[in-house]
Amino acid sequence: MSQLCILSVVLVAVGLYGVLLKRNHLKIVLGIELMVVGVAGLVVAVGAEGTSVAEVSQSLGLIAVVGGTSVVCLMIVTAVRLYEKYGTLDIREMRRLKG
Amino acid sequence: MSAVLPVLVIVPLVTALAIALFARGSERVADVLCNVGTVVVVGLVFVIAGPVLGGTTLAWFTGGASPLGVNLGVDALSLLMLLVISIGCLAASVYSVSYMDSYTSKAKYYVLFMLMLAGMNMVVLGADIINMYVGIEVAALACYALVAYGLDKEYLEASFKYQILGTVGTLCLVSGIGLMYAMLGTVSFAEMAGMDAAGVAGIAVPAVLLLSGFGLKAAFVPYHAWLPDAHSSAPSPVSALLSGVFIKVIGLYGLMRLLFLVFAPGSTFSTVLLVLASLSILVGALLALVQTDMKRVLAYCTISQMGYVLLGIAVGTPLALTAALFHLVNHAIFKELFFFGAGSVERQTGSRDISCLGGLNSRMPVTGVTTAIGFFSVTGCPPFGGFWSKLLIIIAAVQAGQTGFAVVAAIGAVITIGYFLRYERGVFFGSLPDALRNVKESPVSMYAPMIALAVACVALGVAFPWFIEHILQPAVQAIMLGA
Q1: What number of C-beta contacts closer than 8 Å exist between A and B?
Q2: How many separate helices (H) and strands (E) can be counted in chain B?
Q3: Which one of B1, B319, B367, B389 counts the least CB within 10 Å of its CB?
Q4: B272, exposed or middle or buried, with CB in 10 Å at 0-12, 13-18, 19+?
Q5: Residue B361 to residue B372: CA distance in whole angstroms
Q6: Residue B211: CA count within 13 A, CB half-sphere
Q7: pLDDT tens digits, one per residue of B290-324
Q8: Beta bridge partners of B59
């Protein structure tokens, strides 16, 4: 298993920890961003043979980063708007909807 | 003829651009542009419908061989989805003309709406998983923004929740696709159908990731937490599209495409799918029983009805797949109808709380009658479309030896009658509260799509043998290509 693969899995794990356990909006968004980078790295790592990487894996990794970054931008906008409405970034304070 | 395929994506994109450029000052220009765009898309879909149903598979690509270039293809399954998407979007765009008057900056709404349409078309046109994934990403981005469109506290909260869970789903998909490519060396559906992909060692890992990704997108229990919030928070035409079309296109469609290629009915995966399906049917229906918000009842109903479609897919026999696709179409029609009805009630009365409404049949007769037709279809009254599709799903499950799951489906159908009777009594029957004495019927651009959808509910029920033979059977054959 390549070092990139291990690094990617660690990034995804740290990101997932942030998404699942953090109560602060921006930290959750940071967690998502870490997961995006980790997944992109993972896609490239599994597509690698020796020193070359399959073109498809490279392009998929790029698409994942682009797509992930646009979603993260939208999340930050939403988080700012939520902060304006609630005056806090704590998700425990936002309980107007019940699943 | 194949040259039409990229146009199906380009038309909504160009329309979105045109609305953004030319309709800033005038809402009427935006109304016209959006509706012209959706009508053109419907027209184009009908243009390719003839040859595709005749057995031709259309293909178009540019920029290099699969999967690096843009590869589009249409077979009968894609065509069925294109019909559902384009007709659903046309109904929603006509409905939006009056409904969205109460919101600010209508032009921006239409831009997002057209981007969502472009993304959904891209998903079903993609001839390999990567093109499909790009479409999912575009459609989902537009959808997140549309859910938050009202900019109230709860809308933003719902959108944020949806963004987080949706992105986790997308990331599951990306890693699944990446791993699958590393194992198979291809992501094209046609090439995967030619090899025994399901037999490759270790394919279970990407399969689980893909299942979780599509599950999050299609909101099966236990992946459903975002759906009731998101679908009830969006403006009603968008709720209708989300429940009726969107989750099927970005969730179920991918699952159906990969069903025989990766998930292989008869394996452990189909047992997992069967369990997820019965959980969705029961949990969705039971939670719908206790809701007081009209749109939340409908959202939980969506979870439950998607369970039926998944049950058909999981059973995996030709009859079950036909029934699943038929229920998918029926659900698209009656759920749009319900959300349009709920939107009308909310717009005319200012409330969507079942406990505060009542007796609206006398004040809003068209909304009342069309919603009642939707009610007959969803609860499975003959001869409406919903009756035949639910019956076929249950028959197919029994024939395949899954009697236990057939019983679950039957119990779910009974609970469905329960919560919809409560819905009908609370909103359209019973006594009219004094505060609602002066309520009027919604404008014609809102009830015209409702009448059209109600007619479709009846027509599908009456003409179901024709529909199954000419539209659904070719689509089922397309799914079973890899079997």
Answers
A1: 114
A2: 21, 2
A3: B1
A4: middle
A5: 10
A6: 24
A7: 999 999 999 999 999 999 999 999 998 999 999 99
A8: B73
Residue in this structure with the two tokens 């997140």, named with its chain if needed = B144
Residue A3: count other Cβ atoms within 10 Å of its Cβ.
Answer: 8
Which amino acid is it at B336?
E
**Interchain contact, B157 vs A28, CB within 8 Å:** no
Chain B residue at shortest CA distance from A59: B68
Q: How many residues does chain A have?
A: 99
Tokens 């990331």 label which residue? Answer: B171
Q: pLDDT category, A99, cuts 50, 70, 90?
A: very low
Cβ of residue B286 closer than 8 Å to a chain A Cβ: no
Q: Which amino acid is at B395?
A: I
Distance from CA of A39 to the nearest CA of B (A): 6
Secondary structure of residue B253 in the 3-state scheme: helix
- pLDDT by residue (tens digit) across B374-430? 999 999 998 899 999 999 999 999 999 999 999 999 999 999 999 999 999 999 998
Number of neighbours of residue A56 by Cβ within 10 angstroms: 22
List, for residues B133-185, the tens digit of each pLDDT value.
Answer: 999 999 999 999 999 998 888 899 999 999 999 999 999 999 999 999 988 88
- A39, A62, A91: best to mutate for the B interface, most B CBs within 10 A: A39
B189 falls in which pLDDT band (50, 70, 90)?
A: confident
Interior CA angle at A20 toward A39 and B241, to 5°?
Answer: 75
Picking from A19, A25, A56, the nearest residue to B181 by CB comes out as: A56
Rounded to 5°, angle at Cα B216 from B287 and B477: 105
How many angstroms separate the CA atoms of B14 and B20, rounded? Answer: 10
* Spatial distance between the Cα atoms of B256 and B248, rounded to a whole number of angstroms: 10
**Chain A residues close to B182, C-beta within 8 Å:** 46-47, 54, 57
Measured distance CA(B454)–CA(A7) in Å, rounded: 55
Closest-CA residue of B relative to A54 is: B182
Provide the shortest C-alpha distance from residue B317 to chain A (in Å): 34
> For residues B203 and A68, is the Cβ–Cβ distance under 8 A?
no
pLDDT exceeds 70 at position B265: no
Q: What is the DSSP letter of B263?
A: I
**Percentage of chain A modeled with pLDDT above 90:** 63
What's the rounded Cα separation, in Å, for the pair A99 and B13?
A: 34
Which amino acid is located at B335 in the chain? K
Please name the residue of chain B whose CA is at the shortest distance from the CA of residue A68.
Answer: B167
pLDDT > 50? residue B441:
yes
At residue B358, φ and ψ (nearest 5 deg) are: 155, 155
Q: Which residue type does B62 have? A: T
Q: A27, A38 in Cβ contact below 8 A?
A: no
